[in-house]
Amino acid sequence: DAKTTQPNSMESNEEEPVHLPCNHSTISGTDYIHWYRQLPSQGPEYVIHGLTSNVNNRMASLAIAEDRKSSTLILHRATLRDAAVYYCILSYGSGNTPLVFGKGTRLSVIA
Amino acid sequence: DAMVIQNPRYQVTQFGKPVTLSCSQTLNHNVMYWYQQKSSQAPKLLFHYYDKDFNNEADTPDNFQSRRPNTSFCFLDIRSPGLGDAAMYLCATSRVPGGYNEQFFGPGTRLTVL
Question: CA nearest A36: which of A25, A48, A28, A54?
Protein backbone atom coordinates (compact mmCIF):
# COMPACT_ATOMS: atom_id res chain seq x y z
CA ASP A 1 0.00 0.00 0.00
CA ALA A 2 1.11 3.53 -0.73
CA LYS A 3 2.11 5.45 2.39
CA THR A 4 0.91 8.74 3.79
CA THR A 5 2.63 11.20 6.12
CA GLN A 6 0.67 13.40 8.50
CA PRO A 7 1.65 15.61 11.42
CA ASN A 8 1.16 13.86 14.74
CA SER A 9 -0.97 16.62 16.18
CA MET A 10 -2.50 20.00 15.40
CA GLU A 11 -4.38 22.58 17.37
CA SER A 12 -7.11 24.96 16.29
CA ASN A 13 -9.30 27.59 17.84
CA GLU A 14 -13.02 27.04 17.80
CA GLU A 15 -14.87 28.54 14.82
CA GLU A 16 -11.67 29.00 12.83
CA PRO A 17 -10.79 27.04 9.65
CA VAL A 18 -8.48 24.05 9.97
CA HIS A 19 -6.18 22.75 7.25
CA LEU A 20 -4.95 19.21 7.84
CA PRO A 21 -2.11 18.26 5.49
CA CYS A 22 -1.21 14.86 4.11
CA ASN A 23 1.76 13.88 1.96
CA HIS A 24 1.54 10.88 -0.31
CA SER A 25 4.45 11.20 -2.71
CA THR A 26 4.26 7.55 -3.87
CA ILE A 27 0.60 7.71 -4.87
CA SER A 28 -0.31 5.82 -8.03
CA GLY A 29 -2.74 6.91 -10.70
CA THR A 30 -5.57 4.73 -9.43
CA ASP A 31 -5.23 5.46 -5.70
CA TYR A 32 -8.13 7.25 -4.08
CA ILE A 33 -7.44 9.64 -1.20
CA HIS A 34 -9.69 9.00 1.78
CA TRP A 35 -10.12 10.87 5.03
CA TYR A 36 -11.67 9.31 8.09
CA ARG A 37 -11.85 10.61 11.61
CA GLN A 38 -12.19 8.89 14.94
CA LEU A 39 -13.81 10.66 17.84
CA PRO A 40 -12.84 9.49 21.34
CA SER A 41 -14.21 6.04 22.19
CA GLN A 42 -15.95 5.67 18.82
CA GLY A 43 -15.32 3.82 15.58
CA PRO A 44 -13.85 5.76 12.66
CA GLU A 45 -16.26 7.67 10.47
CA TYR A 46 -15.97 8.63 6.84
CA VAL A 47 -15.24 12.28 6.12
CA ILE A 48 -14.51 12.61 2.41
CA HIS A 49 -12.61 11.06 -0.47
CA GLY A 50 -11.40 12.03 -3.92
CA LEU A 51 -9.27 10.99 -6.86
CA THR A 52 -8.04 14.04 -8.76
CA SER A 53 -10.43 16.96 -8.37
CA ASN A 54 -11.19 18.91 -5.22
CA VAL A 55 -14.25 17.65 -3.38
CA ASN A 56 -16.76 19.29 -1.06
CA ASN A 57 -19.39 17.80 1.21
CA ARG A 58 -21.31 18.88 4.25
CA MET A 59 -18.49 17.92 6.60
CA ALA A 60 -15.38 19.20 4.86
CA SER A 61 -13.49 20.02 1.69
CA LEU A 62 -10.64 18.05 0.16
CA ALA A 63 -8.02 19.94 -1.80
CA ILE A 64 -5.80 17.71 -3.93
CA ALA A 65 -2.52 19.01 -5.33
CA GLU A 66 -2.19 19.01 -9.09
CA ASP A 67 0.54 16.33 -8.98
CA ARG A 68 -1.56 14.40 -6.40
CA LYS A 69 1.44 14.02 -4.11
CA SER A 70 -0.28 15.86 -1.31
CA SER A 71 -3.75 16.79 -0.15
CA THR A 72 -5.37 18.94 2.49
CA LEU A 73 -8.52 18.33 4.46
CA ILE A 74 -10.27 21.59 5.23
CA LEU A 75 -12.72 22.02 8.07
CA HIS A 76 -14.29 25.38 7.43
CA ARG A 77 -15.26 26.22 11.01
CA ALA A 78 -13.86 23.97 13.70
CA THR A 79 -16.14 23.07 16.57
CA LEU A 80 -15.33 21.25 19.80
CA ARG A 81 -17.01 18.20 18.30
CA ASP A 82 -14.35 18.11 15.57
CA ALA A 83 -11.65 17.15 18.07
CA ALA A 84 -10.58 13.73 16.82
CA VAL A 85 -7.83 11.75 15.13
CA TYR A 86 -7.93 12.36 11.39
CA TYR A 87 -6.61 9.64 9.11
CA CYS A 88 -5.48 10.20 5.53
CA ILE A 89 -5.55 6.89 3.66
CA LEU A 90 -4.74 5.85 0.11
CA SER A 91 -6.73 3.02 -1.37
CA TYR A 92 -6.32 1.36 -4.73
CA GLY A 93 -9.27 2.16 -6.94
CA SER A 94 -10.23 -1.35 -7.97
CA GLY A 95 -9.87 -4.85 -6.71
CA ASN A 96 -10.14 -6.22 -3.23
CA THR A 97 -8.34 -3.47 -1.34
CA PRO A 98 -9.48 -2.52 2.15
CA LEU A 99 -8.40 0.64 3.90
CA VAL A 100 -5.08 0.52 5.73
CA PHE A 101 -4.82 3.16 8.44
CA GLY A 102 -1.68 5.18 9.22
CA LYS A 103 -1.01 7.04 12.44
CA GLY A 104 -3.21 10.05 11.72
CA THR A 105 -3.28 13.59 13.10
CA ARG A 106 -4.76 14.30 16.49
CA LEU A 107 -6.70 17.56 16.22
CA SER A 108 -7.38 19.54 19.37
CA VAL A 109 -9.95 22.35 19.29
CA ILE A 110 -9.68 25.11 21.84
CA ALA A 111 -12.78 26.98 22.96
CA ASP B 1 -31.32 3.93 10.39
CA ALA B 2 -29.11 1.50 8.54
CA MET B 3 -26.06 0.77 10.59
CA VAL B 4 -23.27 -1.48 11.80
CA ILE B 5 -23.95 -3.00 15.20
CA GLN B 6 -21.40 -4.62 17.47
CA ASN B 7 -22.20 -6.68 20.53
CA PRO B 8 -21.23 -6.55 23.22
CA ARG B 9 -19.70 -3.09 23.55
CA TYR B 10 -17.49 -4.34 26.37
CA GLN B 11 -16.26 -7.91 26.82
CA VAL B 12 -14.15 -9.32 29.61
CA THR B 13 -12.54 -12.71 29.24
CA GLN B 14 -9.90 -14.74 30.98
CA PHE B 15 -6.48 -15.55 29.64
CA GLY B 16 -6.84 -18.53 27.32
CA LYS B 17 -10.64 -18.66 27.39
CA PRO B 18 -12.18 -18.53 23.89
CA VAL B 19 -14.26 -15.48 23.13
CA THR B 20 -16.52 -14.47 20.24
CA LEU B 21 -17.34 -10.95 19.19
CA SER B 22 -20.26 -10.29 16.88
CA CYS B 23 -21.08 -7.76 14.21
CA SER B 24 -24.28 -7.26 12.28
CA GLN B 25 -25.23 -4.82 9.55
CA THR B 26 -28.46 -3.55 8.09
CA LEU B 27 -26.77 -1.96 5.07
CA ASN B 28 -26.82 -5.15 2.98
CA HIS B 29 -23.18 -4.57 2.13
CA ASN B 30 -21.12 -7.26 0.45
CA VAL B 31 -17.92 -6.68 2.38
CA MET B 32 -17.32 -6.94 6.11
CA TYR B 33 -14.02 -6.14 7.84
CA TRP B 34 -12.49 -6.72 11.26
CA TYR B 35 -9.90 -4.33 12.66
CA GLN B 36 -7.94 -4.44 15.90
CA GLN B 37 -7.09 -1.15 17.58
CA LYS B 38 -4.78 -1.10 20.57
CA SER B 39 -4.50 1.88 22.85
CA SER B 40 -3.19 5.01 21.12
CA GLN B 41 -2.64 3.13 17.86
CA ALA B 42 -4.33 3.18 14.49
CA PRO B 43 -6.80 0.45 13.52
CA LYS B 44 -5.07 -2.60 12.08
CA LEU B 45 -6.89 -4.76 9.56
CA LEU B 46 -7.17 -8.43 10.61
CA PHE B 47 -9.25 -9.86 7.76
CA HIS B 48 -12.29 -9.25 5.63
CA TYR B 49 -15.01 -11.08 3.77
CA TYR B 50 -16.12 -10.20 0.27
CA ASP B 51 -19.41 -12.09 0.19
CA LYS B 52 -18.29 -15.57 1.28
CA ASP B 53 -14.68 -15.14 0.23
CA PHE B 54 -12.40 -14.83 3.24
CA ASN B 55 -9.28 -12.66 2.98
CA ASN B 56 -6.76 -12.93 5.78
CA GLU B 57 -4.01 -10.37 6.30
CA ALA B 58 -0.59 -11.97 6.21
CA ASP B 59 0.35 -10.94 9.74
CA THR B 60 -2.92 -11.85 11.46
CA PRO B 61 -2.19 -14.47 14.14
CA ASP B 62 -3.75 -17.92 13.76
CA ASN B 63 -5.40 -17.33 17.11
CA PHE B 64 -7.89 -15.07 15.31
CA GLN B 65 -10.61 -16.63 13.19
CA SER B 66 -13.74 -15.31 11.56
CA ARG B 67 -17.09 -16.61 10.38
CA ARG B 68 -19.71 -15.05 8.16
CA PRO B 69 -22.81 -17.25 8.17
CA ASN B 70 -24.87 -14.81 6.09
CA THR B 71 -24.73 -11.31 4.59
CA SER B 72 -25.80 -9.61 7.80
CA PHE B 73 -23.58 -11.21 10.41
CA CYS B 74 -19.86 -11.65 10.93
CA PHE B 75 -18.08 -13.07 13.98
CA LEU B 76 -14.56 -12.72 15.32
CA ASP B 77 -13.34 -15.72 17.31
CA ILE B 78 -10.25 -15.49 19.48
CA ARG B 79 -9.35 -19.06 20.33
CA SER B 80 -6.96 -18.47 23.21
CA PRO B 81 -6.81 -14.79 24.17
CA GLY B 82 -3.56 -13.51 25.56
CA LEU B 83 -2.96 -10.31 27.49
CA GLY B 84 -1.67 -8.75 24.27
CA ASP B 85 -5.05 -9.25 22.60
CA ALA B 86 -6.70 -6.67 24.82
CA ALA B 87 -7.89 -4.02 22.40
CA MET B 88 -10.83 -2.38 20.69
CA TYR B 89 -12.18 -4.56 17.89
CA LEU B 90 -13.88 -2.68 15.10
CA CYS B 91 -16.21 -4.09 12.49
CA ALA B 92 -16.76 -2.24 9.23
CA THR B 93 -18.67 -2.76 6.00
CA SER B 94 -18.58 -1.49 2.46
CA ARG B 95 -20.91 -2.05 -0.46
CA VAL B 96 -18.16 -3.53 -2.60
CA PRO B 97 -14.38 -3.52 -2.25
CA GLY B 98 -12.26 -0.97 -4.02
CA GLY B 99 -10.78 2.35 -3.10
CA TYR B 100 -13.69 4.46 -4.27
CA ASN B 101 -16.04 2.97 -1.67
CA GLU B 102 -16.82 4.33 1.75
CA GLN B 103 -16.43 2.07 4.76
CA PHE B 104 -18.96 2.21 7.57
CA PHE B 105 -17.72 1.37 11.06
CA GLY B 106 -19.45 0.04 14.11
CA PRO B 107 -18.83 1.50 17.58
CA GLY B 108 -16.39 -1.28 18.48
CA THR B 109 -16.11 -3.90 21.21
CA ARG B 110 -13.52 -3.25 23.88
CA LEU B 111 -11.97 -6.54 24.97
CA THR B 112 -10.30 -6.92 28.35
CA VAL B 113 -8.24 -10.03 29.07
CA LEU B 114 -7.68 -10.88 32.73
Answer: A48
Dihedral sign of CA atoms B23, B29, B30, B33 in order: negative
Which positions in chain A touch B108 (Cβ < 8 Å)? 42-43
pLDDT single digits (tens) B4-39 = 999 899 999 999 999 999 999 999 999 999 999 999
**CA-CA distance, B80 to B96, in Å (whole number)?**
32
A70-89 confidence digits (pLDDT tens) = 999 999 999 999 999 999 99
Count Cα neighbours of A51 within 13 Å in the Cβ-side half-sphere. 10
The size of the A-B interface in CB pairs under 8 A is 64
Any B CB within 8 A of A49 CB = yes
Angle at A19 between CA A13 and CA A24, to 5 degrees: 145
The chain A residue lying nearest B33, using CA atoms, is A98
